[in-house]
Design a protein that fits this description.
Blueprint lengths: L3 E8 L8 H11 L7 E8 L1 H12 L7 E5 L10 E8 H11 L3 H16 L7 H17 L13
Parallel strand pairs: 1-2, 2-4
Antiparallel strand pairs: 3-4
Helix pairs in contact: 1-4, 3-4, 4-5
Length: 155
């Protein structure tokens, strides 16, 4: 059986952040690789760091809910680190309130969404978006949360 090691970093994120245990549980629930154990970092940030990373890596000068940075293993080195998730606590909490969702459900969605990106899923076209949304819904409802796209939410 494959395992996912999850490290959680809290970098000036403030309150309203789920426990480390929950963040790890949600990341592990989204890990779909059957033949590979791996490690991931989940970094919780404030708006300043999220904005800088979003600007520098995506060309968008604003904080965002979740960023996924996949890791490329070096040739000849059996690196198990698959990547990092950077989740902006104030944005996630604000979005949950705006969308009328529980903060915990939205946090779980952002972790699952980011983990699927680390595994190569995307939503750049309608077919890929539908497939990714179906997988997110399966994982999140399996965790006991409502379907994340019931109100046409876009991560």
């Amino acid at each position: 059986m494959t395992e996912l090691g999850v490290s959680v970093q809290r970098a000036g994120a403030g309150g309203g952040v789920p426990s480390t245990r929950l963040l790890k549980d949600w990341a592990r629930a989204a890990w779909r690789a059957e033949s590979r154990s791996a490690d991931v970092v989940v970094r919780i940030t404030g708006e300043r760091e999220s904005r800088r990373l979003n600007r520098d890596y995506r060309g968008k000068d604003r904080p965002t809910n979740v960023l996924s940075f996949a890791s490329e293993p070096l040739p000849g080195i059996g690196d198990s680190h698959v990547g990092d998730l950077v989740i902006c606590a104030p944005v996630v909490l604000r979005e949950a309130a705006e969308q009328g969702k529980s903060p915990e459900a939205h946090w779980a969605h952002m972790v699952v969404h980011g983990m699927l990106h680390l595994q190569g899923h995307d939503h750049e076209n309608d077919a890929d978006a539908a497939a990714m949304e179906a997988l997110e819904t399966e994982i999140l409802t399996g965790l006991g949360f409502p379907a994340p796209y019931a109100d046409d939410e876009t991560p």
